[in-house]
Amino acid sequence: MDDATFEALKRSLTRLIGLDLDGYKQMQMRRRVETFVAKHCGTPAAFIERLARDPALLQATRDMLTINVTEFFRDAAQWDLLQTSILPSLLRRRRSLAVWSAGCSHGQEPLSLAMLLDEAGALPRTRLLATDFDQAALRRVSIGGPYAEEELRGVSEARLARYFTRHDELYRADARLLRRSTFRELNLLDDCAGVDRDVEDFDQAFDLIACRNVMIYFETDAKAALIRRLRAALRPGGVLFIGATEALLGADASGWERLGGNFYARSAEARTRRPAA
Ligand SMILES: C[S@@+](CC[C@H](N)C(=O)[O-])C[C@H]1O[C@@H](n2cnc3c(N)ncnc32)[C@H](O)[C@@H]1O
Q: Among residues 45, 66, 87, which one ends one of the domains?
């Protein structure tokens, strides 16, 4: 696919899907789009023409672009750290917590959070917001799945028995795990203000934000802007939980204190030095 065709295809996809594809790492994005188009339709023109009248292809394209691969308790060591150190420390400071799973995919992340909060005895006092760009994923998590056995690999037998109900071959998360949760569509490339209608002011609204394996696909400026917005949404001392292959580095690390593992606390912003008079 030549550059002009790729740019035209990107514009069509942005119009049909509502996602600014320039916010994503371009080489990765282009490889994914080219492979997908070749597999499904052959030519970009045929692909766009079919996309406009084929909702299943549109959803498959959205999944391909946003990559919704996820797991319960993904990167188990980080969840152990959350359970044994980060959560207890947050709960010592605040009786009730506000938690946001930003880019929650099909719910494995917010449900993992809900299980840990329940085990800490804090779920009834927690408000959990789960957001994603993908409406189909949000619909699924809002009704507790259901999840196939292979999707539940990270869930221990004890948790499976305690938090899921089996129907035939599928497992549905118990309603009580979801009772404290709200689900909203949110594009993390956009301004997040107004997404959480339960809080008047999104600024400094959260104690813990899990935003994992999302910014890894964003290009540099979009990633930096997202990190700034996540910081603004945290209370001072609030904690950001990122993916195992992600890190806050360079300018992105300003205003954060690394707590260990993939956890960063919102700290005072580094002062910019004034030029000498
Ligand atoms: C790889 S999954 C990660 C899911 C989960 N956080 C985890 O770590 O297992 C990336 C998720 O980010 C969502 N996503 C991608 N781009 C997004 C955007 N611009 N705004 C909101 N969500 C986005 C996708 O729909 C997908 O659910």
A: 66
How far apart (Å, rounded) are the C-alpha atoms in residues 108 and 125?
21
Q: Are 61 and 14 in contact (CB under 8 A)?
A: no
| Per-residue pLDDT reduced to its tens digit, 153-176 | 999 999 999 999 999 999 999 999
At 81, is the pLDDT very low, low, confident or very high (cuts 50, 70, 90)? very high
Q: Which helix H or strand E contains 133, and what residues bound it? A: none
Query: What's the gap in Å between 217 CA and the centre of ligand 1?
Result: 9
Residue 165's pLDDT is what?
96
**For residue 39, what are the domain limits?**
3-66
Residue at which a domain ends, from 37, 66, 95: 66
Query: Could you tell me the distance, in angstroms and rounded to a whole number, from the CA of residue 3 to the centre of ligand 1?
Result: 27
> 196 with 172, same domain?
yes
pLDDT digits (tens, 9 = 90+) for 96-124: 999 999 999 999 999 999 999 999 999 99
- Residues 237 and 140 grouped into a single domain: yes
- What number is the ipTM of this complex? 0.99
- Whether residue 274 is contained in a domain is answered as no
What is the pLDDT at residue 191? Answer: 72
Asked if 115 and 224 sit in the same domain, the reply is yes
Handedness of CA 78, 82, 83, 89 (dihedral sign): positive
Work out how many domains the chain is built from and give that number.
2
- DSSP state letter for 84: I
The answer to whether residue 161 sits within a structural domain is: yes
Residues contacting ligand 1 via CB (< 6 Å): 19, 66-71, 74, 103, 105, 109, 132-134, 137, 186-189, 212-214, 243
Buried b (16+ CB within 10 A) or exposed e, 146-165: bbeeebbeebeeebeeebbe
**pLDDT above 60 (res 187):** yes
Residues 62 and 100 in one domain: no
One domain for residues 195 and 103: yes
